[in-house]
Write a structure and sequence with these properties.
DHBP synthase, binds zinc ion, 23 helices, alpha+beta, six-stranded mixed beta sheet, binds fe (iii) ion, Alpha-Beta Plaits, 4 domains, globular
């Protein structure tokens, strides 16, 4: 047999996240390495390759695709077909035809890779160059203005590549082939440090000064990848306190960044799965058990601290010069406004209370916050989805094309539908703030343009006053309103590509209900099209409406009033009311008795608020969900008891409140009571699931809503259900809170459209 007859031709289809991540040059280099001939092409449904050579070599080539794929790619499948020989004479990259509207892939931002870190010390034109990047790493989403993803369409456009960068950019075998933000000390963006009205641009000076300011306990505003950060030494209590006062942030923990994994281990406990998340190319903040070695004002009494590892070249260069191993790195914004991206605004506003402002002269086009996650039951769960994750699409099994989903009011993200993909926006924030609302509408316009989505259908929350709802209605296209908790369950179903009847349990703070009441403890049987509210937590009065969220003691009093009626006045000696002025107590009791401004709620968040206050753990909240978080922190690890409850048309917890009051009077440890309370909620979920399995033959349980960011609840609920034969679906890549509500809205609207209901 001649050699050519041993050659075969394989057509290879690689599916997954393979676009915008340097996949084609990667394939090209592999083909050259293995001496294979053929071509590679990007198409909408993946990367197509044809290679000719011996089958053995092609098999090795395919193994290498799996094992050596660029870090930001995600190879889901590789299908191979043997086809007729075409006798290729070279290996080439075929220019993709898809400049059409079908192109949707925009890569998220990728942390600087190890090769680039090495290059910082070895490449003459990039010695300590803080914007180093390559095909496998660097900014993407934050700098892109339009497609196709070319330098001219990014905020790198004003920087003209020097000859050396250009030769790397055009050399197909170079690590920087077609790396759009490629730059060096000669031609790229530069940092500058602004201090007392003067400006330093010499980079060695800048980084040295920045390091010594932080070592010395000063506050520095630093321009990051998706916006400004505020930084200070995280072991210097005075510095952290100063930052807390400057940020006007009383009770909410700060995130930290450590030099490396090893030094981080001094401050927090890290298991292997947490380590995987910390070191992933997305570099999210991961909530980790605090070892109490940081300045106390970092985590303000909480058991966990959010930590991350360096992800920009600058971070690495800074730690090289700094003595301290760990800094606070919190978003640079004023109160609830979006994270600042504008240099002038940063210098004016952040500079007014920081000792220095570190900036650079490349614009951030798309603002992103640091993403945040935690690990429970060995699985990572995103709680804020932004840098590193946006705009990676969620792949679905249904057609969501042309749908715009507006999302919720708080921790908003919107979502656009493109074919069978849902593209969730970055974390936007709380829309009540004017600046955030502007960020929302600007980003919505950009997404529609960037992903070539022409919305034909808008979907929004039923709440008539949500600003997201108002925005969606202003689009003047057909629209559909969706119930909040139905959307929660649907969002989790979307993540797991479920399209069937399930047991859906949505526990959260607030959502507008069908009956005009405030829902939030909802036990459904539902599918994507519709839901049946089987039961819910008994309605309780919220004295003062929304104001009750800031004053958990009001909810505790409300529950006591529900249980004891007028004789609640016999229980006012409880500890949690000691610091509340008598006239305020009387005012609230008056409101409760006369039903003045006391909207009814089945909210799980308010129920947790009530218990947290009643146990005198948190009676006043300085930030969202503080009382439930502090209550969770009191839980004991090994106590299985729970309180009595009664599931009827609604779930009555009166007996629990009576027992807690009696126990408090007997002086029983509040940690025992907090634990029993959590166990009660878990037990209710379990009892409900068993009932639905018996009555309706269902065994898939979908858990969603912000209360499932309570790790004690999530971990034990999942385990209990799985041990008892249920299939459990919880949020992993999308947040359980309102941050993924728009994803649920999107798939509900798509389902209703498919069924011809709209
Ligand atoms: Zn790199
Ligand atoms: Zn250059
Ligand atoms: Fe919600």
């Amino acid at each position: 047999m001649s050699k050519s007859s041993e050659s075969v031709n394989n057509r290879i289809h690689v599916k997954g996240l393979v676009q915008g991540v340097g996949f084609r040059p990667f394939i090209y280099r592999l083909a050259i390495r293995f001496g294979l001939l053929g071509w590679v092409e990007n198409r909408n449904d993946g990367v197509f390759i044809k290679v000719e050579g011996s089958q053995e070599t092609i098999n090795d080539f395919i193994d290498a695709i799996r094992n050596e794929a660029p870090q930001a790619s995600n190879v889901v499948s590789i299908d191979t077909q043997n086809i007729t020989l075409e006798n290729f004479t070279e290996f080439s990259i075929i220019k993709s035809e898809n400049t059409s509207d079908d192109v949707t892939d925009v890569s998220p931002d990728i942390c600087v890779c190890n090769e680039c870190i090495d290059d910082l010390k070895t490449q003459d034109h990039r010695i300590d160059y803080p914007f180093i990047n390559c095909t496998n790493c660097g900014p993407r989403f934050t700098i892109i203005k339009d497609l196709p993803y070319d330098r001219g369409m990014t905020t790198m456009a004003p920087f003209i590549m020097c000859e050396q960068c250009n030769s790397e950019y055009t050399e197909i075998l170079d690590r920087r082939f077609h790396a759009q933000p490629v730059a060096c000390n000669t031609c790229g963006p530069i940092y500058s440090l602004h201090q007392n009205g003067s400006k330093t641009e010499d980079f060695q000076e800048v980084v040295k000064e920045c390091a010594s300011l932080l070592d010395d306990g000063k506050l520095v505003a630093m321009k990051g990848m998706g916006g400004y950060h505020l930084a200070c030494n995280a072991v210097d209590e005075e510095a952290v306190k100063k930052l807390r006062i400057a940020k006007n942030r009383d009770g909410k923990p700060f995130a930290i960044m450590a030099r490396n994994l090893n030094s981080l281990k001094t401050y927090v406990a890290i298991n292997i799965e947490e380590e995987n998340h910390l070191t992933s190319w997305q570099r999210p903040i991961v909530l980790l058990k605090d070892l109490k070695k940081l300045a106390p004002s970092v985590s303000v009494g909480f058991e966990s601290t959010g930590a991350m590892l360096p992800y920009m070249p600058f971070h690495f260069l800074l730690f090289e010069k700094m003595k301290t191993d760990v800094i606070v790195l919190t978003s640079g914004n004023i109160s609830d406004e979006p994270i600042i991206i504008d240099n002038k605004k940063a210098i004016d506003e952040l500079g007014s209370f920081c000792d220095a402002v570190l900036t650079y002269n490349r614009d951030i086009h798309n603002r992103t916050d640091d993403s945040a996650s935690f690990v429970t039951n060995n699985k990572g769960r995103l709680i804020r989805r932004s840098r590193g994750f946006t705009p990676t699409p969620t792949r679905l099994n249904q057609n969501v094309d042309g749908i715009f989903a507006a999302g919720a009011e708080l921790v908003n993200c919107f979502c656009v539908g493109k074919g069978q993909q849902a593209i969730l926006s970055q974390h936007i924030g709380d829309l009540k703030n004017l600046e955030t609302l502007e960020f929302y509408s600007e980003s919505a316009e950009r997404f529609k343009h960037l992903f070539r989505v022409k919305p034909e259908l808008a979907v929004y929350d039923m709440h008539p006053d949500y600003l997201s709802t108002k925005y969606a209605k202003s689009l003047n296209i057909p629209g559909v309103a969706v119930q909040h908790h139905h959307a929660h369950i649907a969002s989790c179903m979307a993540e797991h590509q479920l399209d069937e009847k399930v047991i859906g349990i949505a526990l959260d703070g607030v959502g507008y209900g069908d009956d005009g009441k405030i829902w939030g403890g909802e036990f459904f049987v539902c599918d994507l099209a519709d839901y049946d509210r089987v039961t819910y937590f008994d309605y309780a009065k919220m004295p003062g409406g929304d104001k009750a969220t800031k004053h958990p003691w009001r909810m505790a009093l409300s529950y006591l009033h529900k249980v004891y009626g007028k004789s609640v006045r016999d229980y006012l000696e409880l500890d949690f009311l000691k610091d509340v002025p008598e006239f305020e107590i009387n005012l609230i009791l008056d409101m409760l008795e006369k039903n003045i401004n006391t909207p009814l709620t089945s909210s799980t968040g308010r129920l947790f608020d009530a218990m947290s206050a009643l146990l005198n753990i948190c009676t006043k909240a300085s930030f969202h969900a503080e009382a439930p978080m502090r209550l969770e922190a009191e839980c004991l690890a090994d106590l299985d008891d729970h309180f009595e409850y009664d599931i009827q048309e609604s779930i009555c917890l009166d007996a629990m409140f009576e027992e807690v009051v009696m126990s408090l009077n007997k002086g029983i440890d509040r940690r025992i009571l907090a634990t029993k309370f959590h166990n009660t909620i878990i037990n209710i979920i379990f009892a409900f699931a068993k009932k639905m399995r018996a009555e309706r033959g269902l065994d898939k349980v979908v858990l969603s809503g912000g209360s499932f960011q309570n790790r004690y609840i999530l971990e034990r609920t999942e385990n209990l259900l799985i041990e008892n034969g249920f299939k459990v679906y919880s949020h992993l890549e999308t947040p359980a809170n309102d941050g993924s509500l728009s994803l649920g809205q999107l798939v509900i609207a798509a389902k209703k459209r498919e069924l011809g209901q709209i």
